[in-house]
Inverse folding.
């Protein structure tokens, strides 16, 4: 395995990623006992950093890991990592696990020091062809647990969901629970029907994406006004437009689901408008004071 010579951070020290190791007794390794964030960075400016750190704090609280840092310390760590990379557009991966404990025991240990890992990858926005032509997706029953609102590193359900679309040479798996849309394996999902933008409300059945929130803000500002309510599988399959959103994929149109075209099988007009608003927002409309802590 080739690991690039990039500077990463583990438990108080910056060092090349390839040199960093954690103990095999780390509960992240043994139990998937930890949480993470993926923060996009454009031109060395973290996008919505405060919101990512807020979601991190909420995930940590939900799994009963004491937050190892306050917001100012997290921001400083992220900014230092950004400064140490040779490229400006970055994807910052930030992970906190419960740390190492012996003996192995499901019970949460009374004392364990969380393991904090951060590293950066170059961030490449989706290729123009994907933006212009859209992507294929497959649908499946959501195989995950009841706390999908926590951004946990326990991702086997998401991994197996994604495997279904990999098998079909598609870009994403759209999941349904009890006949209702939940989300994608690593994205949130929006539908457009008769000019209305529909998406499920945040709940334990999905992760509230930072991009999801941005798209809702942009829709409220520029239209179409979003309708936040349960979305049925039938509504997804008969949508005029279907989108996925995430920090790395931004907004992409899903133009077929299980091989059946969505709308006319091409990215729709409302998608194209929203994509434009999102790019403008990225380029300069970030709220003052937000892009830098
Ligand atoms: N995943 N839902 C799930 C299950 C996700 O994994 C993600 C993002 C989202 C969108 O969240 P955001 O807009 O904050 O990126 C929704 C990231 C990109 C990842 O796992 O790397």
């Amino acid at each position: 395995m080739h690991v690039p010579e990039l500077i990463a951070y583990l438990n108080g020290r910056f060092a090349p990623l390839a040199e960093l190791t954690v103990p095999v007794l780390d509960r992240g390794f043994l139990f998937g006992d930890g949480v993470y964030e993926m923060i996009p960075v454009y031109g060395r400016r973290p996008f919505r950093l405060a919101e990512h750190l807020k979601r991190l704090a909420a995930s940590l609280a939900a799994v009963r890991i004491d937050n190892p840092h306050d917001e100012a310390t997290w921001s400083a760590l992220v900014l230092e990592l950004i400064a140490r990379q040779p490229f400006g557009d970055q994807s910052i991966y930030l992970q906190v696990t419960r740390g190492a404990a012996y003996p192995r025991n499901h019970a949460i240990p009374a004392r364990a020091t969380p393991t904090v890992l951060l590293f950066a990858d170059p961030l490449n926005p989706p290729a123009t062809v994907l933006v212009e032509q859209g992507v294929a997706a497959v649908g499946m029953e959501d195989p995950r647990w009841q706390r999908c609102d926590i951004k946990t590193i326990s991702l086997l359900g998401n991994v197996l969901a994604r495997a279904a679309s990999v098998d079909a040479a598609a870009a994403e798996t759209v999941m349904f629970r009890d006949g209702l849309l939940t989300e994608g394996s690593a994205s949130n999902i929006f539908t457009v029907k008769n000019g209305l933008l529909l998406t499920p409300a945040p709940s334990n059945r999905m992760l509230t994406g930072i991009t999801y929130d941005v798209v809702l803000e942009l829709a409220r500002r520029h239209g179409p006004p979003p309708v936040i309510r349960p979305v049925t599988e039938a509504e997804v399959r008969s949508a005029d437009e279907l989108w996925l959103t995430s920090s790395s994929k931004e907004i992409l149109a899903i133009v077929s689901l299980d091989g059946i075209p969505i709308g006319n099988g091409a990215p729709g007009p409302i998608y194209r408008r929203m994509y434009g608003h999102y790019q403008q927002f990225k380029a300069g409309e970030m709220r003052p004071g937000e892009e830098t802590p």
In short: The chain has eight helices and 15 strands. The two ends are 36 Å apart (CA to CA).
